[in-house]
Amino acid sequence: MEAVPRMPMIWLDLKEAGEFAFNPAVKKSAVNVPRDFEGCSTLRKYFGQLHYLQSRIPMGAEQEAAVPIAWTEIFSGKTVTHEDIKYEQACVLYNLGALHSMLGAMDKRVSEECAAGAFTYLRDHFPHSYSVDMSHQILNLNINLMLGQAQECLLEKSMLDNRKSFLVARISAQVVDYYKEACRALENSETTSLLGKIQKDWKKLVQMKIYYFAAVAHLHMGKQAEEQQKFGERVIYFQSALDKLNEAIKLAKGQPETVQEALRFTMDVIGGKYNSAKKDNDFIYHETVPALDTLQSVKGAPLVKALPVNPTDPAVTGPDIFAKLVPMAAHEASSLYSEEKAKLLRDVMAKIETKNEVLDQFMDSMQLDPETVDNLDMYSHIPPILMEKCAALSVRPDTVKNLVQSMQVLSGVFTDVEASLKEIRDLLEEDEAQERKLQELLGKVPGSQGSPPPPSSGVAEVSKECSKYMEVHEKASFTNTELHKAMNLHISNLRLLSGPLEHVRAALPSPSLTEDDKQVLQNLKRILAKVQEMRDQRTSLEQQLREMIQKDDITTSLVTTDRSEMKKLFEEQLKKYDQIKVYLEQNLAAQENVLKALTDANVKYAAVRKVLAEVEHKWNTTVQTLVASYEAYEDLMKKSQEGKDFYTDLEGKAAKLLEKARAACHAAETNRQQILEKEMKKQPPPRPTAPKPLQKKQLELEPGGVLDSSELPLGALVLPDLPEELRSL
């Protein structure tokens, strides 16, 4: 896999700056940066100096020195203006992340972690109401995309370095996790409305990558199983990798050639691995192939992180050009308070993420989707694909009739050929029997010498040709039988599709649920709704906390507070977060009870779920079978016509051969008659000789009796000098 072509990556456009009453030279150099790492350095310096400026001069929203600042919104192209220096910082920080994403998508494939760091800092430290391209949802999407692409780069390097298979599998699994998070953000209705057409393109690429890197993960799990000589596990991992890769190929339609090359290359690798592993296990190892869900799932290993942004790092921003304008004490105190807020947020987010991870793992193990937990609606109508086939057959009413007629014609021609060949075989057998009789007779005629004459060349030629036709006929007979089986299988389905729709609907399986079963379903759906409500509430509370932290600016208070009182002031200010922390704690604590209730409901749902799954499987199988019968019609007609043409040709040849056989057998019979007559003429007539003396009692006559030659013993009429061979005649 180390030579696999690289997958393309997503990069973001930069925002365009508008009016800002600032030094024109500084503005020009900050917004028209080159698309390289020098441009990133310029943006970092400008961002840092803006941070120094806003901490000293009241240029924030509704402050005395605030001036209009305009930037173009990425998705709509509209110009958005705010009188807030933080808006300028936010837009510069966005461009820093976008530029890093652009550089990361190039051949060097670095800097995604920098992009993720820029967007993370923007999400956590700035309001999300400035413009829609900097909303919380969009920033989360960008962060997960960048982290996923950074992990993808690490995966490429790991494969090039030939790292251990299990580590490569975990790295690949983490790529899947990041892209799943990105996909969830892309599927959000708000994100969809904001991104427009680009949302579909990104979603298709991300979904394809999810399946692709899941296939890579299972490929390397199969390699690990191979190293551990677990040959049954190796087969199922390679099979799973092949299945996921096929899903990726389906989703890759319309993707650039680089994607197609990567998929083809990976298919060659995985396909070869699977075929080899399956063959070895079938013929050598004979290990049981376990079900995939019985094996331990591959847990991702997050080896990348969003690189933090520090606007006050002199190594990045250079010296503070506004150092003389504002006391550093107030600035330092504000930074300390910001760190306290960040610490509070990290503590809360650690608890939330832990609970979310448990919840996600639990829901994944349950495999319960609220939208499809009961699929009863699908059984109330005929699926569109089947309706399409029914409609197509409704305008072709002779479909079944044509197929039946084709079968009958083919059977008739087949029977004719069978009869002709049988008659030829009977003629040859009869000729062989007559020839054998002649040979037996010739062997007993006096004066016959040598072996009997061989069969005529005409009969031998017919026999040889008949054997050839019989061989062809026997081979074609098997194909003909299989074709008739296929026809008989599909004719009933075609009749069904050609009939009333009510009959088609009745032929499709549907579940029969009791009232208790329906109650179990309703209860499960209610608890699943509770789970979603808990998720939504948690997300809302998290958002409220972030917004409170972002809006919490106590710079004015810090200027008037003594340095010794700073700690006390921090504690008092942080109390404003206690209430929302309590709500979050209650939400997190409720999770255990909700999941317990869901577990109980799922236990009761197991039997219903099995019934629904079985019926759904039967329903899908029936639909697929009916569709297959429709699609097989043209092929059956074509093969039937080919069969008719074949047997018509064979029938003509068999008829000619039959005439030839009759003529050859007749000629052979005539020849045998001539030979027999000739041999009979060669035999001398029998000479009369003296009979043996009769026994006395044989010659005794009853009084008045007359001696009749028919009463003499047979030996008495035989001349004693006749050969023994003729005495029996």
Automatic annotation (TrEMBL):
GO biological process terms, semicolon-separated: early endosome to late endosome transport; endocytic recycling; protein transport to vacuole involved in ubiquitin-dependent protein catabolic process via the multivesicular body sorting pathway
Region of interest: Disordered: 677-712
Keywords: Coiled coil, Cytoplasm, Endosome
Pfam family, one: BRO1
Domain BRO1: residue ranges: 27-359
Main location: cytoplasm
Subcellular location: Cytoplasm; Endosome
Entry GO CC: endosome
Coiled coil spans: 414-444, 524-551
InterPro entries (UniProt xref): ALIX_V_dom, BRO1_dom, BRO1_sf
Protein name from the UniProt record: PTN23 phosphatase
Name of the coding gene: Ptpn23
